[in-house]
Specification:
Shape: globular
Strand content: 5-15%
Number of domains: 2
CATH class of the largest domain: Mainly Alpha
CATH architecture of the largest domain: Up-down Bundle
Order of helices and strands: HEEEEHEHHHHH
Low-confidence stretches: none
Radius of gyration: 22 Å
Largest sheet: 3 strands, antiparallel
Number of helices: 7
Structural class: mainly alpha
Length: 191
């Protein structure tokens, strides 16, 4: 169930709107039920991510640097996450995990294609940093889920993927506590 929900979130991400910058002038492009462009060189446009990736692959456009995930941003998130108290979760972009998955694939592809040891090291470092972020956030999510009746203020920094885990853990803990504290069949002297 969790994997299906994450796949749905990933599908939504692929169909989200992103900003691109035109590398050159381009006439309007008509696809089945969708029209993109025309594009004027240097101007910024908003298109679906899947369209942007296709246009970028042909060098017609490029993604804005601010919107791309890179090692600097991952280091920054890891640093901020490590500084937060165990019961506080850092606010990260809602699209962090889909971007992270794609960035890791991109780094691995670059390393495989170039066969450069530096690229493999960069991929390994980034993957380890990613694991550190995920593990740190998961520990905090489990702790938050075990705390009864938290407000939305405490969980507002969870991404949609993290909210899935949080809700499932809350449900499991609630059911477990109810069963553990159930008095049916228990010694009546304790009642």
């Amino acid at each position: 169930m969790t994997a299906k929900k994450i796949c749905t979130l990933d599908f939504c991400y692929e169909n989200s709107m992103v900003k691109i910058v035109a590398n050159r002038n381009c006439p309007e492009i008509k696809l089945a039920g969708l029209t993109v462009g025309p594009f004027d060189e240097g101007n910024e446009y908003e298109v679906y991510l899947w369209v942007a990736k296709e246009l970028a692959a042909t060098a017609m456009v490029h993604f804005r640097e601010d919107d791309l995930l890179d090692n600097t941003k991952i280091y920054r998130i890891n640093f901020k996450e490590g500084k937060k108290a165990p019961d506080q979760i850092t606010d990260i972009p809602s699209d962090f995990y889909p971007k992270l998955r794609r960035y890791l694939v991109e780094l691995k592809d670059q390393a495989t294609q170039t066969q450069q040891s530096e690229k493999f090291q960069e991929y390994d470092r980034t993957k380890q940093l990613s694991r550190d972020i995920v593990n740190s956030r998961l520990r905090k999510i489990v702790s938050l889920a075990a705390t009864p009746a938290l407000s939305d203020q405490v969980t507002k920094n969870l991404t949609a993927e993290e909210r899935i885990v949080y809700d499932q853990i809350c449900r499991i803990i609630t059911e477990w506590k109810a069963k553990i504290l159930e008095q049916n069949g228990a010694d009546k002297r304790d009642s």
